[in-house]
Amino acid sequence: MGDPAHDSSDFLTDKSAKIFVAGHRGLVGSAIVRKLQSHGFSNLVLRSHSELDLTRQFDVDSFFAAEKPRFVILAAAKVGGIHANNTYPADFIAINLQIQTNVIDSSFRHGVKKFLFLGSSCIYPKLAPQPIPENALLTGPLEPTNEWYAIAKIAGIKMCQAYRIQYSWDAISGMPTNLYGRNDNFHPENSHVLPALMRRFHEAKVNNAKQVVVWGTGSPLREFLHVDDLADAVVFSMDKYSGLEHLNVGSGKEVTIKDLAELVKEVVGFEGDLVWDTSKPDGTPRKLMDNSKLLGLGWTPKISLKDGLVDTYKWYVENVVGQ
Ligand SMILES: NC(=O)C1=CN([C@@H]2O[C@H](COP(=O)(O)OP(=O)(O)OC[C@H]3O[C@@H](n4cnc5c(N)ncnc54)[C@H](OP(=O)(O)O)[C@@H]3O)[C@@H](O)[C@H]2O)C=CC1
Ligand SMILES: C[C@H]1O[C@H](OP(=O)(O)OP(=O)(O)OC[C@H]2O[C@@H](n3cnc4c(=O)[nH]c(N)nc43)[C@H](O)[C@@H]2O)[C@@H](O)[C@@H](O)C1=O
């Protein structure tokens, strides 16, 4: 699906090019900033949510008119785990549609050379074939716990495609699997499973609790990717990929929630028991993505789940517990 008009973005050749990383304080945005800095990029434009609310179309357009970035990576979004997605459907569809519509359209209108949108593996049908190829998009019903978020993300992919088709604009989309790492959200209810369990096991360990409650049955399978690997894939894709179709970004390895819970328990050093709260939803039964398209371009994930968990737990203890 390459587009000859855009086969080279020269992304890595000019380290002084102005890059806007939207959402730079979040899990993904902060990892992308670290990765860009490690490549020597020196002209990053960053705005916190309080400095620039991306749901405000006028403010976003004024920002682009003033800054005129050459490249844009959109890592700002309303994000949360299964409970947050299920509880705040209006926020997940409305805020994400607003942010991405404003940022995509202003990027195009103000001459951004290349744009990268981030979706999520939840865009695929609940019962998609496994591993899930990119062309499984829009082939069946979505998982109900996150369909509102998924619909917004699908609209983002389609908007990038529409601008590419109509204007030959170099907008690409990456679909990451479940991510984790430094700067994750460790909220007890609204976060994703991995930071939620890390916090719960840690608090149980320091309080000498005998049991920790884990949601669902433990049987769902999830694929996890360390956010530093994702950031590497984002920089790689900005440099090497230009095409209409989105790119899956995954580790290629899946684990049951039960095995993940045991692994987090071991890394944290909690010695009590797990209790399964089956009144909580399992969500989609399995979502392993087919990452062969990105691997075929030459990218490989490097961080194992165990190493990534050890690093994340150290960061959590030093930066979240220690505050
Ligand atoms: N985490 C994961 O497992 C996965 C994430 N992704 C995608 O990666 C991207 C980043 O996610 P992640 O880093 O985890 O999310 P985070 O919640 O960690 O970070 C999101 C960032 O966006 C900012 N933001 C939210 N709303 C606005 C707004 N209205 N105006 C300006 N900034 C805003 C947040 O700022 P503030 O906190 O101040 O509101 C925050 O810095 C998203 O597109 C997400 O869909 C995809 C797959 C998996
Ligand atoms: C990245 C992806 O993330 C979300 O989808 P999800 O994969 O279902 O995400 P999750 O991390 O919240 O849950 C994974 C599994 O883990 C179980 N689970 C156990 N115990 C806890 C727990 O304590 N917290 C959470 N959150 N889950 C738990 C939970 O019941 C489920 O079976 C999307 O909404 C959407 O945001 C999206 O795109």
UniProtKB/TrEMBL annotation:
It catalyses: GDP-beta-L-fucose + NADP(+) = GDP-4-dehydro-alpha-D-rhamnose + NADPH + H(+). Pfam families: Epimerase (PF01370). The keyword NADP applies. Residues 19-250 form the NAD-dependent epimerase/dehydratase domain. The keyword Thylakoid does not apply. PANTHER family: GDP-L-FUCOSE SYNTHASE. This is GDP-L-fucose synthase. It comes from Populus tomentosa (Chinese white poplar).
